């Protein structure tokens, strides 16, 4: 099926961005000292209810492997690189020294990587709206020493609750949406209606475009990291705010549609989602097995667990999300 991706995108201006940001600003909603944003929408009662969604005991890992075969290849969007894994004590070392008096033999390793190079969460200190970040904190509170406010460690026990998969690619009827395809709020609602699933406050909504699977199937990342991509339209900002969800994640590099819809502004939806709404954002999620299972049994809700690595002052974190049905 031929799809005109360009026809799905809208055009906005910086004034539109500023009006949308002001309209959706939630600074102070959870107090002047808040550093959790929409994760406050995940209540103990919601977690208990989410746990009751586990009926089959079937678990789906939603992370890519963290290795040199990752998507950071084009250099279009950032200076990120794929993980570099190194052994600093190995079995070869152990075999070379066969001293029987040695108390233990084993292996140790390390990894060097940007914290947002593969499956990951953005922290609320990741994106600024001009010189302010979430809840009005001065952006200079993020220094070379890390984020003194809105670091990812503040969310160490919060990324757990009800997950909902919106399989937009399957809803449209294609294996993968074409690059540049914009997903608007009406389509998100229509997809949820087709799946017979209700979006509720505190949910973690995961949107499947199929782009990651397409790249893996082709054996080539191309410009996945920072190039054109399907994703949420800028118009989705109001939907993200009014639904009161806890987090949004996709199988793309940057969640929102690329080319972006505001000339001269990179990732305009990020300008609103993170610093103004206070929304937790996840990227590069692997969704194939989960999506196939949801299509097979018609159940698109599940228990979701994706706690961040509590790296003090970090503005992002690698994560290994799990969906349990």
Which labels suit this protein?
Glucose Oxidase, domain 1, 15 strands, globular, two-stranded antiparallel sheet, 9 helices, 325 residues, single chain, nine-stranded mixed β-sheet, alpha/beta
Distance between the termini: 32 Å
Number of helices: 9
CATH topology of the largest domain: the name is: Glucose Oxidase, domain 1
Structural class from helices and strands?
A: alpha/beta
Mean pLDDT, as a whole number?
A: 95
CATH architecture verdict of the largest domain: 3-Layer(bba) Sandwich
Order of helices and strands: HHEEHEEEEEHEHEHEHEHEHEEE
Task: Describe how the helices and strands are arranged.
Blueprint: H1 14-24, H2 44-51, E1 59-61, E2 84-89, H3 91-96, E3 108-112, E4 120-122, E5 142-143, E6 146-147, E7 160-167, H4 168-172, E8 182-183, H5 185-195, E9 204-208, H6 211-218, E10 231-232, H7 236-242, E11 247-250, H8 268-277, E12 280-283, H9 288-297, E13 301-305, E14 316-318, E15 322-324
Parallel strand pairs: 7-9, 8-10, 9-11, 11-12
Antiparallel strand pairs: 1-15, 2-3, 4-12, 4-14, 5-6, 7-13, 13-15
């Amino acid at each position: 099926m031929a799809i005109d991706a360009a026809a799905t995108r809208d055009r906005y201006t910086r004034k539109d961005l500023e009006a949308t940001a002001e309209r959706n600003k939630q600074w102070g909603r959870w107090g002047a000292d808040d550093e959790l944003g929409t994760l406050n929408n995940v209540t103990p009662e919601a977690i208990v209810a989410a746990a009751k969604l586990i009926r089959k005991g079937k678990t789906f890992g939603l992370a890519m492997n963290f290795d040199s075969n990752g998507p950071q290849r084009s250099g279009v969007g950032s200076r990120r690189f794929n993980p570099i894994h190194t052994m600093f004590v190995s079995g070869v070392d152990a075999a070379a020294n066969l001293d029987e008096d040695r108390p233990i033999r084993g292996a140790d390793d390390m990894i060097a990587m940007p914290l947002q190079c593969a499956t990951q969460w953005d922290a609320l200190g990741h994106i600024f709206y001009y010189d302010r970040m979430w809840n009005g904190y001065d952006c200079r509170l993020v220094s070379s020493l890390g984020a003194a406010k809105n670091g990812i460690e503040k969310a160490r026990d919060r990324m757990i609750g009800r997950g909902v998969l919106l399989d937009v690619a399957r809803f449209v009827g294609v294996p993968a949406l074409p690059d540049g395809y914009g997903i608007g709020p009406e389509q998100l609602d229509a997809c949820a209606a087709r799946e017979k699933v209700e979006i509720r406050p505190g949910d973690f909504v995961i949107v499947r475009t199929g782009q990651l699977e397409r790249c893996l199937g082709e054996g080539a990342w191309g410009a996945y990291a920072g190039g054109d991509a399907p994703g949420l339209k800028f118009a989705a900002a109001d939907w993200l705010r009014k639904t009161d969800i806890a987090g949004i994640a996709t199988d793309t590099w940057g969640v929102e549609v690329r080319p972006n819809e505001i000339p001269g502004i990179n990732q305009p939806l990020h300008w609103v989602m993170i610093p103004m709404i206070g929304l937790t954002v996840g990227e590069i999620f692997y969704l194939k097995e989960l999506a196939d299972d949801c299509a097979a049994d018609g159940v698109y809700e599940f228990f979701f667990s994706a706690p961040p690595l509590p790296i003090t002052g970090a503005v992002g974190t690698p994560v290994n999300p799990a969906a349990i049905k």
